[in-house]
Amino acid sequence: MVYHKLPFHCKSTESLLAKAKSTSFWRDYFNFEAIRVRNRELEEDQFFANLHEHFPYKCAIVKLKPNHFYNWHVDARRNVCINLVLEPVNSHTIFCHNYGEILGEFEELKYEANTCYLFNNSIYHTVLNFESPRYLFSLEFDDKKLKFNDVYKKIINKEIKIHGCLPIGNS
């Protein structure tokens, strides 16, 4: 599995986007520009507090400039993360199932508004961004050996509570 859509709407999206658009303090982070997000900035979403009890993390907003791409790669420092595109833009996140082949299959993650995705960083992926800056909230777990399935199982087994969050289908 390359990603998993989390079953709630993120209530922090607007405040995170406002932060991204109002700051001039971007720092270089793995060829992106990034700003740190403090855990207290996510208080609107109880899921993040519940998640932190199981898997401590740090998070940031990363910006990809217009008409830029992030080449095919697997993340060297993390196997799994949680991502949320903060506003709809013309960009594509694509996973490759047979990287290095001349012909192969791919799977696109089509981000939905206010929706977080558990993201398998150990599968080759790329991002193509077009005419607007792309702001992405990205949550990185402190345990760098943590795997996608470790977090996925706790979420689907409801060991990480989502109560207090807006279920998908509600606004």
Can you put this structure into words, describing what you see?
- This protein is α+β, with helices and mostly antiparallel strands.
- The protein has helices at residues 13-22, 46-54, 148-156; strands spanning 3-9, 27-29, 32-37, 57-64, 69-73, 80-85, 91-96, 106-109, 115-120, 125-129, 134-141, 166-167.
- The strands form two sheets. It has an eight-stranded antiparallel sheet. Strands 5-10-7-8 form a four-stranded antiparallel sheet, with no helix packed on it.
Topology:
Elements: E1 3-9, H1 13-22, E2 27-29, E3 32-37, H2 46-54, E4 57-64, E5 69-73, E6 80-85, E7 91-96, E8 106-109, E9 115-120, E10 125-129, E11 134-141, H3 148-156, E12 166-167
Antiparallel strand pairs: 1-9, 1-12, 2-3, 3-4, 4-11, 5-10, 6-9, 6-11, 7-8, 7-10
Describe this protein with a few key phrases:
single chain; alpha+beta; eight-stranded antiparallel β-sheet; four-stranded antiparallel β-sheet; 3 helices
Structural class: alpha+beta
Helix proportion range: 10-25%
For the biggest sheet, the summary is:
8 strands, antiparallel
Could you spell the SSE succession in H and E letters? EHEEHEEEEEEEEHE
Shape: globular
Strands ordered across the widest β-sheet: 2-3-4-11-6-9-1-12
What is the mean predicted local confidence, pLDDT? 92
Rg value? 15 Å
Distance between the termini: 28 Å
Q: Would you report the number of β strands?
A: 12
Estimate what percentage of residues fall within beta strands.
35-45%
Name the quaternary structure.
single chain
Number of helices: 3
